[in-house]
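Propose amino acids for all 209 sites.
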């Protein structure tokens, strides 16, 4: 399967994999006359080094001029000619881009910004895990803590302490999973996309102990 990338604000596409140089798991390289960079989510610095996660921003002829009668939304999305996509991505050493998460799904823990997908990758390494989704659970003072919702494979048993310890060596200390809830299913859309919003709403509606 050959992946590309586009969005309503920059249609039909901004990235594609050249047929002769396809790199699996990436959206490819920017199209002709299109510039794409990675922005630091904390400092706003444009053009992070290869391998660092940040927001994907795009500049090119396919980028919209603005939202109809929505100047404030336009100013938030278009800055100095760059379209801020809201997608978190990585650019590798060959100039290929890979989408890793949505900015709105990031977890804010003690001033750090954490991409849930990285934590989910660590959880999935455990052989007892069938499905998982990581969100930011609201906690006083620190903001949010990474919490994993996990569906176990049939016949498997696992404790919260075991999964937290399993993931510790695979993540930076501040990215540590700090809470786990085992569930029968992970909420998804009809096309299989995880609905983290539903899980976050569960956390907000759950009374504090």
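Proposal:
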């Amino acid at each position: 399967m050959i992946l590309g990338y586009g969005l309503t604000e920059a249609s039909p596409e901004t990235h594609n994999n050249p047929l002769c140089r396809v790199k699996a798991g990436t959206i490819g390289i920017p199209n002709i006359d299109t510039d794409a960079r990675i922005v630091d989510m904390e400092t706003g610095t444009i053009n992070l080094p290869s391998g660092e996660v940040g927001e994907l921003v795009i500049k090119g002829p396919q980028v919209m001029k603005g939202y109809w009668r929505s100047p404030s939304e336009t100013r938030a999305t278009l800055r100095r000619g760059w379209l801020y996509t809201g997608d978190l991505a990585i650019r590798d050493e060959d100039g290929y881009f890979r989408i890793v998460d949505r900015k709105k799904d990031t977890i804010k823990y003690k001033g750090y910004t954490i991409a849930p997908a990285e934590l989910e990758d660590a959880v999935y390494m455990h052989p007892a895990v069938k499905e998982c989704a990581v969100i930011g659970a609201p906690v006083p003072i620190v903001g949010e803590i990474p919490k994993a919702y996990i569906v176990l494979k049939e016949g498997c048993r696992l404790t919260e302490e075991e999964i937290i310890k399993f993931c510790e060596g695979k993540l930076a200390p501040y990215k540590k999973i700090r809470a786990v809830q085992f569930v029968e299913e992970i909420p998804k859309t009809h096309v299989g996309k995880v609905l983290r919003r539903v899980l976050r709403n569960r956390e907000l509606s759950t009374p504090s102990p």
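The chain has a mean pLDDT of 93. The first strand starts at residue 4 and ends at 7.
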